[in-house]
Design a protein that fits this description.
Blueprint lengths: L2 H13 L3 E3 L3 E3 L1 E6 L9 H8 L7 E4 L1 H5 L11 H20 L1 E8 L2 E12 L2 E11 L1
Antiparallel strand pairs: 1-2, 3-7, 4-5, 5-6, 6-7
Helix pairs in contact: 1-4
């Protein structure tokens, strides 16, 4: 198993069963962009261009902390299910920060927003997780 395969498997395993909560709960899927690490780190505009996002799509960059805040810092202390999942989101955030170099969070689009948590995964690849946030 290559280093990239090991990393992809670790990210998929860390995110298994977790969803990104917005107006819809969507799963996290492993993301990889071969050759995408050339010139990394770069901004959301360059990332959107490299993945072929539609021209004119709204673009936003967030910190890893802010992206996971709804699942960690902003959780309802009386919601037992949310509190039970909180350590898994904390572990996933830590895994992303430790496994990828120069982690960035990019949001592309409106209403159904593609969210990418990406960083240099080695071997010239950008790697991370993708999910969708629904915000009307």
């Amino acid at each position: 198993m290559s280093e990239g395969d090991t990393l992809r498997h670790g990210l998929a395993e860390g995110a298994e069963g977790l969803t990104y909560t917005s107006e819809s709960d969507r799963p996290f899927d492993p993301f990889e962009l071969a050759g995408g690490a050339a010139g990394w780190p770069y901004g959301v505009e360059e990332f959107a261009r490299r993945i072929g996002a539609p021209a004119g799509a709204p673009l936003e960059e967030r910190t890893l902390q802010r992206f996971f805040a709804p699942h960690i810092e902003s959780t309802d202390p009386y919601d037992t299910r949310t509190q039970a999942l909180r350590p898994r989101y904390e572990a996933l955030r830590a895994l992303l920060a430790a496994s990828l170099r120069e982690v960035r969070v990019f949001r592309i689009g409106s209403i159904e927003i593609d969210c990418y948590v990406v960083g240099d995964g080695g071997g010239g690849k950008l790697m991370g997780l993708h999910t969708v946030a629904v915000e009307t």
